[in-house]
Amino acid sequence: MLLKVALFLHIISAIFWIGGMLFLVAVVAPYLKTLSDPKDKAKIYQIVGTQYRKWGWVAIITLLVTGPVILYTLYGLPPSAIADPSLHASSWGRTLVTKLTLVAIIVISALVHDFWVGPRARNSPGFSKFARLFGRVNLILALLIVIFAVLLRAGGM
Ligand code: HEM
Predict the structure, then answer these.
(1) What's the confidence (pLDDT) of residue 7?
(2) Quick one: 92 exposed, middle or buried, by C-beta within 10 A (0-12, 13-18, 19+)?
(3) Which residues contact 57 (CB under 8 A, 6 or more apart)?
(4) Separation of alpha carbons 155 and 152, rounded Å
(5) Domain extents for the chain?
(6) 6 within ligand 1 shell (Cβ under 6 A)
C-alpha cells in the first residue's frame, strides 16, 4: 500500500510541477506577448508565478520525500545505498545516480530562480531576461529527469 501511495504522489507531483512549467512557457508567455502594457505583463506574471511557485515547492518536497520511499519499498534500497560504489557499477545504479544528480541541480536552480532572480524580475529587464533563461533551463532539466525516471523503470540506460 505504501508503495502505491508513494508512486501515486510521486507521479502526480511530477505531472503538476513539470506540466506547470510547460504551461507557463507554452501558454502564459505567448499570451503575455499579446499585451501592450509592460506593467500588465509583469503583474500577471508575478501573480501566476507566485501562485505556481507555492504549489511547485509542495510538489518538489513531495518528490524528494516519496522518491526514497519508492526506492526502499520497490527495490529495498535505503537512501545510504545511493552512495555505495557497488550500485554505481550497474547500469541501473548509474541511471539512478544521474537522475538524482539532475534532481540536486534543479532544486538548487529552482531555489535561485524562485527566491532570488524571480522576485527581482518585476523591476529589472535584466533580471526578467535571467528569470526566463532559468525557467527554460529548469524545464529542460525536468524533462531530462523524467527521461531518466523512465530509463529506471526500463532497467537502466
Ligand atoms: C525532481 C524530482 C523528481 C522527478 C521529477 C521525478 C520523476 C519521476 C517519474 C515521472 C517517475 C515515474 C517513472 C516510472 O515509474 O515509470 C519516477 C519514478 C521513480 N522515482 Fe522519481 N522523480 C524525482 C525525484 C526522485 C528522487 C529524489 C528519488 C529517490 C531518492 C526518485 C526515485 C524514483 C524511483 C525509485 C522511481 C520508480 C522507478 C521505477 O518505476 O522503477 N525520484 N520519478
Answers:
(1) 97
(2) middle
(3) 110, 114
(4) 5
(5) 2-153
(6) no
**pLDDT class of 42 with cuts at 50, 70, 90:** confident
Share of the chain above pLDDT 90, in %: 63
CA angle 85, 108, 63 (to 5 degrees): 70
Atom of ligand 1 nearest to the CA of 103: 1
Residues 22-34 have pLDDT tens digits of 998 899 989 988 9
Distance 103 CA to ligand 1 centre (A): 10
pTM for this predicted structure: 0.89
- 119 in ligand 1 pocket by Cβ < 6 Å? no
117 lines ligand 1 (CB under 6 A): no
